[in-house]
Amino acid sequence: MLFYFIKYLNYGIIFIGDFMIKAVFIDIDGTLLDFEACVEESMRVGLTENGTEYKPEMLETFHRINNGLWRDLEQGKLTFERLLEIRWATIFEALGIDLNGPEFEKYFRARLHKSAIPMAGSYEMLEYLSGKYRLFAASNGPHEQQVERLRKADMLKYFEEVFTSGKIGAEKPSADFFAYCFEKSGDVKPEESIMLGDSLTSDMKGGFDFGMETVWLNLNGKEAPEWLDHEIKSLDEIKNII
Questions:
Q1: Radius of gyration of the chain (CA)
Q2: For 122, what's the count of Cα atoms within 13 Å in the CB-facing half-sphere?
Q3: Pairing label, strands 213-217, 134-139
Q4: Residue 12 half-sphere exposure, CB side, CA atoms within 13 Å?
Q5: Does residue 173 have a cis bond before it (omega within 30 degrees)?
């Protein structure tokens, strides 16, 4: 599909003209796979096996702390290794649970490695896009874990490449992450590509700043920023855009 747009990038370049969209880069967690459901399952089973009762309100504490740590990671304030070292120790301290955080982190990641609960409409969207556009997965996370989860969900077959921060050594929204993706994706240019994801800070801002068309999956009714190109409330709405 052709797009005609004027885009002002934060480094001062302006693109004007018609561009044929050739590729779609798709986030994994919260876009293709239901990260919250995967986390809830892994957390519930893990705590139960360690003799601790799981309560649904514990999930809010996980997300509050985990999201804060990932924001620090995206901003370069924290390394991935340090995040893994302190994540569950911080969560358990907030919950008043006497368990070994680093040990539970190992269990949690192993359990999450096997968890692949699809988001509503994800298979239908991939079928619709497949054959029309080149598809790439683009995720912040450990490479082997994300590849295995896509394989377990029977989604890996749709993608030419799976780009992860674990393999690249840089996280979305950094320019280094996106530069690596385009270096490895052949002759696809940013202005010929869409970044589809659920995160404004990593997916949308990173893709927009790199010159990509942005499509935000907004499941929580948050206010969209003015610079955003497109907003969808469900994955099937991608058909209204491309």
A1: 18
A2: 24
A3: unpaired
A4: 0
A5: yes
CA gap 58, 54 in Å, rounded: 7
DSSP string, 85-124: HHHHHHHHHHHT--S-HHHHHHHHHHHHHT--PBPTTHHH
Amino acid identity for residue 100 in this structure: N
Q: Is 149 helix (H, G, I), strand (E, B) or coil?
A: helix
In this structure, the chain runs to a length of 242
DSSP characters for 33-76? B-HHHHHHHHHHHHHHHTT----TTHHHHHHHHHHHHHHHHHTT
> Model-level pTM?
0.81
Q: What is the pLDDT of residues 210-228, one digit of tens each?
A: 999 999 999 988 999 999 9
Tell me if 177 sits within 8 A of 183, measured CB to CB: no
Distance CA 241, CA 203 (A): 17
- Beta strands 134-139 and 23-26 are parallel
User: Token digits for 114?
Assistant: 């096997």
Question: Quick one: pLDDT band at residue 1, thresholds 50, 70, 90?
Answer: low
The candidate with the shortest Cα–Cα distance to 150, out of 168, 133, 137, is 137
